From TrEMBL:
It comes from Mesorhizobium liriopis. May play a role in fatty acid biosynthesis and insulin sensitivity. It comes from the Bacteria. Belongs to the enoyl-CoA hydratase/isomerase family. Keywords: Fatty acid metabolism, Lipid metabolism, Lyase, Transit peptide. InterPro entries: ClpP/crotonase-like_dom_sf, Enoyl-CoA_hydra/iso, Enoyl-CoA_hydra_C, Mitochondrial_ECH-domain. SUPFAM superfamilies: ClpP/crotonase. One of its GO terms (molecular function) is enoyl-CoA hydratase activity. It holds the Pfam family ECH_1. This is Enoyl-CoA hydratase domain-containing protein 3, mitochondrial.
Amino acid sequence: MAEIVAIKRVADTPLRVEADGPLLRVILASPPANALSREMLKRLHEAIDRASTDGAVRVVVIGAEGKVFSAGHDLKEMNGRRGDADRGRAFFEETMLACASLMQAIVRCPKPVIAAVDGLATAAGLQLFASCDLAVATDTATFCTPGVNIGLFCSTPMVALSRNVGRKQAMEMLLTGETIDAATAREWGLINRVVPREYLNPVVTKYAQTIASKPASTLRIGKEAFYRQAEMPLAEAYDHSVRVMVENMLARDAEEGIGAFLEKREARWED
């Protein structure tokens, strides 16, 4: 049974955070839209920051209640600021920067982050799960970047989207605003697995527990190296990865793990 360690309910933007052994479940609990309001962005960022420094947390799982994973930014909240003296410019900029900061925090989090997607993930909602390291979706989940349909190109979701799928596929989604199904999303590389709804939590939990059983220090080293080398030219990426590999080889857990493998015994991780 998961222990509820924090519940934040501010206005209509609740976020539920549960400790489940080595897993930290972060649940968007503001149906029907699970919109990424300013308050929701703040609470999500706080949860990721907490997970990053909490030694008891090995893996983070981001999910949502209801039939929509997340419909993206709270457009009512944003449109309500058009009456400001600057027509909302400052609020829009602060919101987009807060969202960008959250997505980067997920990528930079030293703990693996898995998205459990059920229902529609659209615009910044797609950006949220696409920023995670892994994503499992139900077979009825759907995905889109529909900003073009309302005159607002999904430029910030584009950053995460274009780092997950090919350019032609990303541009198809961005230019048409059309929805793709879970099978297409998996074919394009946007998600890892497609499962029936009743299997979503069991499959995600199994994924998370498998990852949580690995040495935390190795996961941290590997995740950081993966994203850093992905931003580098080929030769620079290899130079960086060689340095990381050497330091990793000298780490206590690598010495123990290799020794255990050669001696055909269970490894004893120090983390």
